[in-house]
Amino acid sequence: MPHRNLIKNMMKSYITILLCSLALFSNVDAKILWEKVWFEHNSYYILEIDKADTSNLMALVGIGGFYTQVLKSIDAGKSWNIIFNDTTFILPVHYPFSMSYPEKDFAIVMCDSGTFLKTNDGGAKWQKGDIKELHSENFTTMVTMFDKNNGLIYGSKKLFISHDGFETYKQIYFPVYVPVLDFQMLSSNFIFAMTVYYDGNPNYDEKFFKSSDGGESWTEYYYPDYIFPRKICFIDTLFGYTAGSASTGLGDNRYDLIYRTSNGGKTWDKVLDTLCWPPYGLQDIDILDRNTAIAVGQFGKIYWTHDGGNSWQRDSNTLIEDGIPATLRVCILGENTALIGDWKNRIWRSYLTTDVEDDVPDSDQMISPNPAYDFIGISVGANDRSPLQSSIKVFNVFGQKLMTVGVQNFDPIRIDVSGLPPGMYFVRIGDRVSKFIKV
């Protein structure tokens, strides 16, 4: 009997420690879980992710450098379907480079040599077009659309504008004959562009340009020398970021750099300057609003800001780093929700557990017993049941998915957790997340 009481007291003490740990983790606002929501074949790669709104998204997939595949999600990136996958549509075959998806029904995909695809019905049908001035040249091309009518296409140091969804277009003046690293169209007439003068590696001379009259005239602003911005992203005509890198002078090692402007590019403030492994700089950034943005770099490197760029939180995830994927693309949907695509044809979606807890204050009551020993029971209300919630996922505190349990019927749900080591875990059904302690 004394021995049994000793064991009982030890278990009570252990549970108390775990509950204290639970309280500690609950106060941390960075418990972001990443789930793989798309994967088909690792010789394919995600070239772009763009959104018409927070529910409708498209992703551009390159397949072995030969032809184009387009994916679509209508549920905020939780599930994806192939909407274009035709190897004979573009002859001769052209390599896809970029995509713009500004409205629910309209999207345009830019390939090399001036060839493009576009849809006016959300991807049900696609039509081929081309920029004749670029048709005989093989090079990288870019596209950005403000809406389904107004947009820009760039290639071979030439810039083209359209106001009818590229049914027609015209070449517009650009003040320098140097490569454009990135550009963005913020209205039918407002355009940003970042250019680079290659004056010896790694010493580049970058210039930032702005036009407020549809490219009829341009204003040039200074941008810090020897900084290589891979992406510019503005939320309005004044506030925006660039994400990129600068050489450390040691091999290919590069600093992670983010610059911010609040006056339309007239001046730039360095808001992130660090050297983190792997040291290859940043490649993409997306903005939700003036407070929230996310930047990504090679090999699963992720940074979030929730205070307008004054501070950045590293959120690299071992799941995304797995397999050493190279280039990453990012699309932000909410304060802590984003989509990331990599060069292993995987798309990841983030979830912040505290977001769900704020919306569902008593979500932990879904699980009993809690703490648990060998099994947990999950109670799911009728309002929470849907075809999308056909599985239950269990994560650890690092966001790693440990278990996926298929659900045949919702009542009752019983999961064997005897194989999990003691600690805190998260259970997700649809968008609801609950915590439990395993002892």
Q: How would you characterize this protein structure?
A:
By secondary structure, the chain is mainly β. It folds into two domains: 15-30 and 361-438, Immunoglobulin-like (Sandwich), CATH 2.60.40; 32-354, YVTN repeat-like/Quinoprotein amine dehydrogenase (Methylamine Dehydrogenase, Chain H), CATH 2.130.10.10. 8% of the residues lie in helices and 45% in strands. It has helices at 2-26, 318-321, 353-359; strands at residues 32-39, 44-51, 57-63, 67-73, 81-84, 96-100, 107-111, 115-119, 127-130, 141-145, 151-155, 158-162, 170-172, 180-185, 191-198, 204-211, 219-222, 228-234, 240-247, 254-261, 269-274, 282-287, 293-297, 301-305, 313-314, 329-334, 337-341, 346-352, 367-368, 375-378, 391-395, 401-406, 413-416, 423-429, 432-438. A four-stranded antiparallel β-sheet has the order 1-28-27-26. Strands 2-3-4-5 form a four-stranded antiparallel β-sheet, with no helix packed on it. Strands 6-7-8-9 form a four-stranded antiparallel β-sheet, with no helix packed on it. Strand 10 and strand 11 (151-155) form a beta hairpin. The radius of gyration is 24 Å and the shape is globular. It starts with a helix and ends with a strand. 39% of the residues are buried. Residues 6-30 and 354-364 have low confidence and may be disordered.
